[in-house]
Amino acid sequence: MTKTNLTELTLTEAKDGLARKEFSALELTQAFIEAMEQNRHLNAYVTETPELALEQAKASDARLAAGNAGKLEGLPLAIKDLYCTKGVKTTASSKMLHNFVPQYESTVTQNLWNEGAVMLGKVAMDEFAMGSSNTTSYYGNVISPWKEKDRPEKELCPGGSSGGSAAAVAGRLALAATASDTGGSIRQPAAFTGLVGIKPTYGLCSRRGMIAYASSLDQAGPLTHTVKDAALMLEVMAGHDPLDSTSLNVEIPNFSSLLKSDLKGLKIGVPKEYIEGLGDEMLAEVNKGIEWAKSQGATIHEVSLPMTSYALPAYYVISPAEASSNLARYDGVRYGLRVEGSTLDELYENTRREGFGMEVRRRIMIGTYVLSAGYYDAYYLKAQRVRTLIQKDFERVFKEVDLLLTPTTPGSAFALDEKPTDPVHMYLQDIYTVTVNLANLPGIAIPSGLDQQGLPLSLQLIGPRLSEQRLLNAALALEECAGFSSLVKDLRKAA
Amino acid sequence: MSENKNLIQGRTGLWEVVIGLEVHAQVNSKAKLFDGCSTDFGADPNTQVGFFTAAMPGMLPVINHLCVDQAIKTGLGLNAVINKFSVFDRKNYFYADLPCGYQISQFTRPIVSGGYLDIDLEDGESKRINITRLHLEMDAGKSIHDLHPTKTYIDLNRSGIALMEIVSEPEMRSSAQAMAYVKKLRSILRYMGTCDGNMEQGSMRVDANISLRRPGQPFGTRAEIKNVNSIRFLGQAIEFEIARQLDILEDGGEIVQETRLFDPGKGETRSMRSKEDAHDYRYFPDPDLLPLRLTDERINAIHATMPELPDAKRQRLMAEFGLPLYDATVIVSERETADYYERAVAALTAKDKVQGAKQIANWLMGDVFAAMNRDNKTVETMPLEAKNLAGMIDLILDNTISGKIAKDVFLKMWESGKAPAALVEELGLKQITDASVIEQAVDEILTQHADKVADYKAGKETLFGFFVGQVMKATQGKANPGMVNDLIKKKLS
Question: Which NCBIfam families does this UniProt record tie to the protein (chain B) (predicted)?
């Protein structure tokens, strides 16, 4: 295998290649560092850490040689810049934290390093994970490596908030990436860039050291090329953490070794509320998914989630409420940006006005409003009740079916200069994903095909709490049916 | 119910004082409520600050179960209901010494609700004060404004320390009752070891809500005095506040609902902030912490560790040793004093425990307290060991020394810390109980004062005391006074 196409490997292929000593971790890492340098126009990385990566790769080679390799030994990854990394700048793509260097490591990234992974750098995101297009970052837009067939000059949106993670993996600037999902921030970028993205059950991955957006919804997960890669990444990222009180104390299965293509006998529900009003192209995609599932021995059932239409309003009450509180700590007193003022209140106002971008300020104001005395009952409490009803919707449906099949997004990626300017329209990007967060359930986005412009489309599988293995197995079956990677290879050959 | 004796006579008629107290009691714990860092008092600024305490990005709170146990124990000691389901809320407001921008507290669902304690009033009566709730919360840090002309310094050592906020019903009717309440609460907390009650170090702080009303009328508008850190200041602050409100109301004015601070230097309260600029705290359940669920097993296990509390101990001391109510109340008011007393009683070897226990109480409340006050000592720092006090009482009871000699022995013990028996031996203070020795002394005195004996026999009976005094003098006070009396009586009859 030549050095130039090392970046074309999947995570699992690279792992196998290292095991067979076809190349070294150092060579692999070097290839990615070069790719990063050549693709800076994508603006995927906020902070590149090539020296650290090479050092880690050397250590990995030693461990590989000694025969005590970890599960991710020598595999170069991109880390979303909301995972705190000890001694490496961590910004959440905000001016507020432009100079912030944590003295501690997030649990999820520590889990990766414990298994020998290599960090290429920190990748961009929507500021504090607030956004669905990666256009709210202090460091500018991230560009998707994908191009429309008819308008190759247009810069496309990689999705958000994990836009840098998606662009880095899809653009072959990392084998895989960590991401995080509060309302769809793993699955929507996966859909826009032809990747697999899994948002696990709330509490499966520790939130310690992840810069919080909305604590009751935030969950870590990976962005990868394949379902197999996702299984491997997730099994390393997940695990009980006594330092996160909401972390689940459950045994994490060896997702990757238990992984097998399996839809046989499964009852797959298709929620009618998710299909109504869907455009023709995406509807056809869902129907394709239904046919694949049937061909694999699953049965299809129409189900109803009547609370669906209330999910987005509830989400846009609860998440800003928690955000307004979580982001109160950025006050210019202890770390991060400080803009002086003559009084304490002025220090706060100046710092927060300058440190936070528009979208963050908008959500802080919404959140402050919905929590304020006199409005709490009408907004926050009501939204929490809706959240409970949404959870009950899913509980009821999962008594009838094993998994749900839905679109991941209403359509394919949009051009950055054509993105919806109306924030409410923008929020609709999350319409198929937020219910999963509100219900604390796992969901996985699988690339299913290409639209007429040659852009990826994506299907989502949703499972009951802690059904990750079932979800991965079913996703693998759909992935095999879709044959997305060969579609992409053909596309590249044609290009 | 109005208590007529506490009503205040104003120019325009009678007024009733209504006082409710919120006591912030620091949980006795080596680590903070949500962070493993230390709670030691007096450490250098910002040396006891963990990542969560400093509100570093991504850092999460983890509940300290020992603090929860302490809150449960305190609730049990206040005869309260321990709620098996309680919730931590965020109380959001901006302040430089509040690193997260919110305080984690319990708002709608506290860990403890509905209890009471009985306060002891000066006339020997007791009064039951109901407790609304006890909830756990984290303390804020400290802003220091006077170290620099334009800057404020922040010390986060206190930030995140576990507090129990104990809220009373507005059932106190005078400053004396409020002081008695804090005294009693402090005593109970110290008995249980759930708070050290050290008000100077800020381990206990009191907020007092005070209003006046005409007897039988609804509550008047109240003012809140914040952060009073001594029982004496609390009394002063309440008295000042009553007088202030009385002046306003008698002149037909209205009380403004506001927060006031007590200035111990000037002995007055002054406005801190009014209701108009009061904070909208924007409470909501903390999404980083699951609701706190307690099991019966856990509550029962804590119940099993409960010490005897002051009221029960007082009853027992009165029943076992026949101590008067006043004495028993004084002895049990501080756990250290009660422990000392019981250690002394346990060390007695005299057969008559009741007699000995009464004597120990008398000595403790008399000479021991006086010496402690004089030398500025506490039960813990004074040189007199409980077993030595008991030993001295034993020597009195077995007639080795007289009560008078005991006063000397006590002073010598206080100075030297030595055991009483050794001192009596060393100083030759042993009481003379040998009848023949005493008889010889009596005979000598009577012989020397034959003239006075004649006067006595002629009817001048007041001379009896003179003879006793002379014998005692001749024996350097060591003769058993009872035996001296008896012998003189016999010889002169």
Answer: gatB, PRK05477.1-2, PRK05477.1-4, PRK05477.1-5
